[in-house]
Amino acid sequence: MKAKIKITLKRGVLDPQGKAIQGALGTLGFAGVEDVRQGKYIELDLAHTDAAKAKAEAEAMCQKLLANTVIENYEIEIA
Amino acid sequence: MKSAVVIFPGINREHDMMMALEAVTGTKPVAVWHTQASLPNVDLVVVPGGFSYGDYLRCGAIAARSPIMRDIVAKAQKGLKVLGVCNGFQIITEAGLLPGALVRNAGLRFVCKQVKLTVENNQTFFTNKLAKGSILRCPVAHGEGNYICDAETLKRLEGENRVVFRYSQGTNPNGALNDIAGVMNETGSVIGMMPHPENMIEPLHGATDCRPLFESLLAA
Fold this sequence. Notes:
Helix content of chain A is 35%, strand content 28%. By secondary structure, chain A is α+β, with helices and mostly antiparallel strands.
């Protein structure tokens, strides 16, 4: 199974990379970009055939390594 | 005073740290490779600076999960003194020894320059030779030194006098909350800081402002 994990900075955590992207978009003439938040996407191939188990394991991986929950949120999609 | 310096792939300040420890304490530190399961018997372990694992995933994240860190975390909880500098600060924070997180510098750029640090707490194993409020010149070299934590943690850190060093005189290089340059854990056994005091201890460094920090280790 595939675990698709999206990791984003929590609201309120300054995202200087997002700000730089916003600035560059403005330079290119894209007016009206009110905010940009950037993040990470991680795709895992798991040996599990049970979606619930795969999700539980991906959840543990996020908690232990993939995300820093002090500053980041994560979303897991099993496919 | 017996010390160990931990080395991960991508760490590059271990020699500077080992030279500073030896020069001031008179005892050569033991180098410990990250795959070792346990530390030798020491009074202090230092996690030095560099770019462990190329800062992949998040700075310090991979190193924080290596075998030696399990032993460091277990021993730190029993009172072993731990000092993390720069990437070492990021690593021990990722390992949960200190609260908060270090994120990309607010100005987006890697900053390599001299800053001024105020000693906010002089009752620690690394600051006891200095007066509270002392100002030290010290180099920084990092891209992700912007210290952040939630409002409740910040209130606790400030209230419990756990901010050890603060950038002073307008020299905050990274946007860190409340100008925080270094913090300690609840018991004072773990200190993390972004600046590099090991590079400010002999005349060839340009100044010796940070030598008393290392001298403090002998009194601690």
